[in-house]
Amino acid sequence: MRKILVIGIGAGNPDHLTVQAVKALRTVDVFFVLDKGSVKQELVDLRAAILAEHVTRPYRWVEGRDPERDRSAGDYVAAVGDWRRARADVCLSLLAELGDDEVGAFLVWGDPSLYDSTLAILDDLADRGEEFDVEVIPGVTSVAALTAGHRVALNQVGKPVQVTTGRRLAEGWPAGVDDVAVMLDAKCSFEGVDPDTWIYWGAYLGMPDEILVSGRVGDVAAEIRAVREEARARKGWIMDTYLLRRP
Ligand SMILES: C[S@@+](CC[C@H](N)C(=O)[O-])C[C@H]1O[C@@H](n2cnc3c(N)ncnc32)[C@H](O)[C@@H]1O
Asked: What domain of life is recorded for the organism (predicted)?
């Protein structure tokens, strides 16, 4: 039986890699990589550097081109569904490179359970009749890297936290929580919240370019937007995450 490892590699710092992940990397015959184009080459390079540091046995490295998501589509959920199916098609062709009884691996940014489609894609391929075993190795999430960078707890004592997207936050503050961790926000949705809310913001967490800003939204929102735009223009891409805490 073919085996697929889905390995969380952490959010950008090669030292986020767990001992469990390192042990798993050393059993892999074929690494599958979805290439997002030259803009995010840095993210592919980090994966290559991880392998160079930790794996000495021979392995194969198979790349597929990550399809673009239709960002103009009105129906967001349908567009993501189409995109996942297109990614599954690419992964199906990658899987053809894996021999019987070989071990393949996807190196997943952060942790595979958080806003990542690899597990859903593998379910899709299993539904299409592909046969393989799956094992998941957890990783350090960008949310954990954010709270560590700011040296704060994710939750207030005994209180719930919601993890959501910038798109959802733009629709309104979630009910029943005072603490909201926001990911996938291309539009600075924090600008729409109560200015007395506290924000812990971080970009390129764990990486040499890490930027951290915190403060009252009313005081730091403009600074974060300016820093974000400058960094994005300079590097060609940005990944940022933030925690909002209501007073
Ligand atoms: C598709 S999700 C993947 C999340 C990942 N699975 C995790 O566990 O963190 C991508 C989002 O994660 C966040 N993110 C990932 N890595 C980050 C980093 N190094 N610094 C800041 N945000 C990051 C950003 O909000 C980005 O838009």
From this structure: Bacteria
How far is Cα 240 from Cα 231, in angstroms, rounded to an integer?
11
Distance from Cα 203 to the centre of ligand 1, integer Å: 9
Q: Tell which atom from ligand 1 comes closest to the C-alpha of 140.
A: 8
- Ligand 1 pocket test, pick from 109, 121, 140, 190 with the greatest ligand atom count within 8 Å of Cβ, gives 109
Ligand 1 geometric centre to CA of 129 (Å) = 31
Q: How far apart are CA 5 and CA 155, in angstroms?
A: 31
pLDDT mean for each 10 residues of the chain (247 residues): 96 95 97 73 84 94 84 80 88 92 95 94 93 97 98 96 97 97 97 98 96 98 98 94 95
Q: Determine the Cα–Cα distance for residues 207 and 143; give it in Å rounded to an integer.
A: 14
The H helix count followed by the E strand count for the chain is: 7, 10
| 166 within ligand 1 shell (Cβ under 6 A) | no
Residue-range domains of the chain with CATH: 3-137 (3.40.1010.10), 142-245 (3.30.950.10)
